[in-house]
């Protein structure tokens, strides 16, 4: 069911959905990997190198900036496709306009969702890293 919906959204959203899906995967993988690394280092009582841990957080910041831009690019291409279909049609049908608007709205929404997710993961990881580092300093 979910796979069918994702594939359907992928086709409806057009070509811009591919890089958006890639950004979603990068966000999830980085979030999980950094969380696991932080937990392992904390449990082993190994010092957390703040700079190394936060380095990958800048990638999440980049994703948070790029995803909405790609979403808006999808909006533009969707609108172009809608107007192209209208101009080529002998009579304007609602289905012709709706297809382009679907593409525009899906990519915008998906880009914004990815941006919010990347921002939230980055924020909570930064907070966790800072807390662990401060705890290490307090313990000596």
List the helices and strands and how they pair.
Layout: H1 2-13, H2 17-43, H3 50-55, H4 57-88, H5 94-139
Show unreliable segments.
none
The protein's oligomeric status is: single chain
Count of all domains: 1
Rg, Cα atoms, Å: 21 Å
Q: Write the H/E string, N to C.
A: HHHHH
Beta-strand segment tally? 0
Integer average pLDDT: 84
Could you tell me how far the N terminus lies from the C terminus, measured between alpha carbons in angstroms? 52 Å
Shape: rod-shaped
As a percent range, the share of strand residues is under 5%
Q: Based on helices, strands and strand pairing, what is the structural class?
A: mainly alpha
Tally of separate helices? 5
| Sheet having the most strands | none
Roughly how much helix do the residues carry, as a percent range?
over 70%
Summary, kept brief:
It is built from 5 helices and no strands. By secondary structure, the protein is mainly α. It is rod-shaped and about 75 Å long.
Describe this structure in words.
With 140 residues, the protein is mostly helical. It has one domain (2-139). Helix content is 88%, strand content 0%. It is built from five helices and no strands. It is rod-shaped, with a radius of gyration of 21 Å.
């Amino acid at each position: 069911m979910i796979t069918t919906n994702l594939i359907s959204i992928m086709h409806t959203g057009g070509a811009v959905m591919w890089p958006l899906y890639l950004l979603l995967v990068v966000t999830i993988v980085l979030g999980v990997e950094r969380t696991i690394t932080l937990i392992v280092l904390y449990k082993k009582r190994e010092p957390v190198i703040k700079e190394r841990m936060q380095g990958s957080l800048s990638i999440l910041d980049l994703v948070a900036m790029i995803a909405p831009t790609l979403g808006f690019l999808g909006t533009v291409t969707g609108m172009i496709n809608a107007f192209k279909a209208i101009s080529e049609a002998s009579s304007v049908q609602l289905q012709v306009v709706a297809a382009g608007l679907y593409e525009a709205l899906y990519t915008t929404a998906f880009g914004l969702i990815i941006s919010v997710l990347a921002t939230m993961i980055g924020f909570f990881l930064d907070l966790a890293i800072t807390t662990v580092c401060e705890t290490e300093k307090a313990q000596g």
